[in-house]
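User: tokens in, sequence out, please.
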């Protein structure tokens, strides 16, 4: 059973896209070097650590690595920030990641290069509409993806990332629970198919992943029959069906390393190539096609909001402050409950699997 299409949310996403301009990479190599040096000094001065998502510019990912920060998925970014002694966390990613970091680290200052960087899934699931929807289904357990606002997390029973979504929903189905899933309909559909759970799916999607085309990938496979196809489950079912490996960002990086194929067609944001190349040096990575014949893509395998994180706005926020994440304490305390549930479940799962 699917929730009706939220046209208002879709229009909101489209408006944001229409107003976004691609970040122009106009800096010379010397200017980049100077900015990198300045950021390194500022990180020390501000007692700050940089945590960057896999989808951000490789410039930022390498800077995070060079300065003792981390490059990871949203949950690991927050976990890392929690364990790190720095007083300030600088989150290069999108807003819900900054919020998750703040929920887990209320005593720390959480900055982002720009608070304008958001996510179509977050935009597509407004807290008030979602709360009203959940209230109509009081007999359902509410499971939300990490790509949601703090207010939506506060309404949930569980928060999940793509790496643990199947395990959590499978666990709930085993207990006989019915599930409301939000916001990504493709990931929800994938989880539903794998677990057989009784689920109501919120109707939202990632504008990057939903543009991958199975036909384009199959055409590419004809040219490179030895290539393996790696797919993030935020992609449409027709794309997931032809994958050699399906998984979260971290799981796809592991698959890139472990699969014997020399050539890999990757259906997720191309920012991930930086870590894939580190994990599997010598392999050839290709973007999965997004535009159909004669069509133009909107996101073209790169998230326009992730692209808003850059060296210059990172330096600016460290130097001048602003762009700080605040989460209402009442919301934070409520959102912490389903987040902690996931963290505990994840730790238990790891123990059970001998990890
Ligand atoms: S890639 Fe998709 S899911 Fe990730 S932040 Fe961008 S819009 Fe959101």
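Assistant: Sequence out:
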């Amino acid at each position: 059973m699917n929730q009706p299409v939220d046209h208002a949310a879709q229009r909101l996403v489209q408006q944001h896209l229409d107003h976004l301009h691609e970040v122009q990479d106009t800096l010379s190599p010397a200017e980049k070097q100077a900015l990198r040096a300045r950021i390194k000094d500022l990180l020390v001065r501000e007692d700050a650590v940089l945590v960057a998502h896999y989808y951000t510019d490789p410039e930022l990912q390498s800077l995070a690595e060079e300065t003792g920060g981390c490059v990871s998925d949203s949950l690991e970014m927050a976990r890392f920030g929690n364990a790190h002694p720095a007083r300030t966390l600088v989150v290069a990613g999108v807003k819900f990641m900054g919020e998750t970091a703040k929920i887990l680290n209320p005593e720390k200052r959480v900055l982002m290069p720009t608070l304008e960087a958001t996510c179509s899934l977050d935009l597509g699931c407004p807290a008030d509409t979602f709360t009203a929807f959940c209230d109509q289904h009081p007999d359902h357990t509410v499971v939300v993806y990490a790509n949601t606002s703090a207010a939506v997390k506060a309404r949930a029973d569980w928060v999940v990332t793509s790496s643990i979504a199947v395990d959590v929903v499978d666990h709930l189905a085993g207990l006989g629970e019915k599930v409301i899933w939000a916001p990504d309909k493709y990931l929800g559909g994938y989880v539903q198919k794998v677990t057989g759970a009784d689920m109501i799916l919120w109707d939202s999607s990632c504008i990057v992943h939903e543009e991958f085309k199975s036909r384009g990938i199959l055409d590419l496979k004809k040219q490179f029959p030895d290539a393996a196809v790696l797919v993030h489950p935020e992609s449409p079912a027709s794309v997931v069906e032809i994958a050699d490996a399906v998984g979260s960002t971290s799981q796809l990086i592991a698959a890139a390393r472990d699969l014997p194929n020399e050539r890999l067609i990757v259906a997720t944001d191309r920012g991930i190539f930086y870590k894939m190349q580190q994990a599997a040096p010598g392999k050839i990575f290709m973007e999965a096609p997004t535009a159909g014949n004669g069509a133009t893509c909107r996101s073209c395998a790169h998230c326009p909001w992730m692209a808003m994180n850059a060296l210059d706005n990172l330096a600016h926020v460290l130097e001048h402050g602003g762009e700080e994440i605040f989460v209402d304490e009442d919301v934070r305390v409520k959102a912490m409950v389903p987040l902690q549930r996931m963290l505990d479940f994840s730790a238990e799962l790891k123990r059970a699997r001998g990890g």
